[in-house]
Amino acid sequence: MNLPNFLTVCRLFLAPLFVFWFFYPPMGWVWAPVLVLALSGLTDVLDGHIARKYNLITQLGQFLDPLADKITIFAVVICLAVRHPAVRILLIFYVIKEVTLALIGFLQLRTWKKSPPARWYGKAATVLLYALFFLVLLVPTLPQEAILALSALPAVFMVLSFIFYLKEINKRKKGL
Questions:
Q1: Pairwise CA distance, residues 109 & 19, whole Å
Q2: pTM to 2 decimal places
């Protein structure tokens, strides 16, 4: 296993650690989940950078990296939705988007060798989600109205990325 894949596997283990420390911070240290999320984000950036720079891109990495992204975001958005009802709309959008894309991917598994690569709009949605996650984690007393307002931009990008990915999938389907 190469270094980028190792970092991705580490990220898979950080998601459940985030969940556990979100609800049961070690010794009452409420910053623990923030550090886990930051470490997860750092390993995400590093594994992609190292894989591209040193030509260490593998099929395993191309499968695990987006999986780790989805598991991490899903874990964080569920945790935040439990404590902050305003985040529940993002949870609904995220579940609809990911379940739909996963079902399409599963149904098309026989005809496609790879899923569509990450695009700028998907990455923008992820960055905006992470910014919201950090803000809500760092300022836990943020009013629900503020969280709802701050959730609007990530939600819009999430919906737009969903639409653009569906268009790309449809284009690929027509090209077969």
A1: 31
A2: 0.89
Q: What is the pLDDT along the chain (176 residues), one digit of tens a residue?
A: 899 999 999 999 999 999 999 999 998 798 999 999 999 999 999 999 999 999 999 999 988 998 999 999 999 999 999 999 999 999 999 999 999 988 887 777 666 556 666 788 888 999 999 999 999 999 989 999 999 999 999 999 999 999 998 888 888 777 66
| 63 & 115 share domain | no
Would you tell me how many other CB atoms lie within 10 Å of the CB of residue 129? Answer: 22
Burial of 153 (0-12, 13-18, 19+ CB in 10 A): middle
Residue 134 dihedral angles phi and psi, to the nearest 5°: -65, -40
Q: Which of 25, 52, 83 is the last residue of a domain?
A: 83
User: How many separate domains does the chain show?
Assistant: 2
